[in-house]
Amino acid sequence: MKDKTVRDIMTTSVITVTPDTSIKEFVKLLERNRINGTPVVDENSRLVGIVTEADVVDQSRKIHIPSFFNFMDSVIFLEDPSILEKEIKKMTGTKVRDIMTEDVKTVTPDTPVQEVATLMADKHFNTIPVVDGDRLVGIVGRWDVVKLVS
């Protein structure tokens, strides 16, 4: 495993969605392919986000109202109120763009497998997109790393 790179274990035929994919279509895709998420790409195969079943589950959770207090007829928030706006957008979203994560951790084909394994363990990632520049070229999952052990 020491000398292996992501190129040696990644999947290159990646199931993807676009930001305009409906959440219903996305869920059907997950079920049909027995996967837990996909990269989100634009029309030029550039990675623009990632969306997972956890993002769909988040739509059903309780909303968190930021703490605030009234002072002299003013409302003063103790937390960033824009978080509430993001939560509402995510909970009411109908397209992948509404629920996806845009700030995606990626690796390159030349990333050592040990580095990927560490990233997966530390950040609890199941899959990580593989990019060349900003173009999606593959995906690497926990099972890809596990297969190296056998």
Task: Write a brief caption for the model.
This protein is of the alpha+beta class.
**CATH class membership:** Alpha Beta
Which sequence of strands runs across the widest sheet? 1-2
- Shape category: globular
Q: What is the CATH superfamily label?
A: CBS-domain
The whole-number mean of residue pLDDT values reads 86
The percent range for helix content is: 25-40%
Radius of gyration: 19 Å
Largest sheet: 2 strands, antiparallel
Number of discrete domains:
1
Termini separation comes to 11 Å
Structural class: alpha+beta
CATH structural fold name? CBS-domain
Series of H and E elements: HHEEHEEHHHEEH
- Count the beta strands: 6
CATH architecture: Roll
Low-confidence stretches: none
Continuous helix count: 7
Residues in β-strands, percent: 15-25%
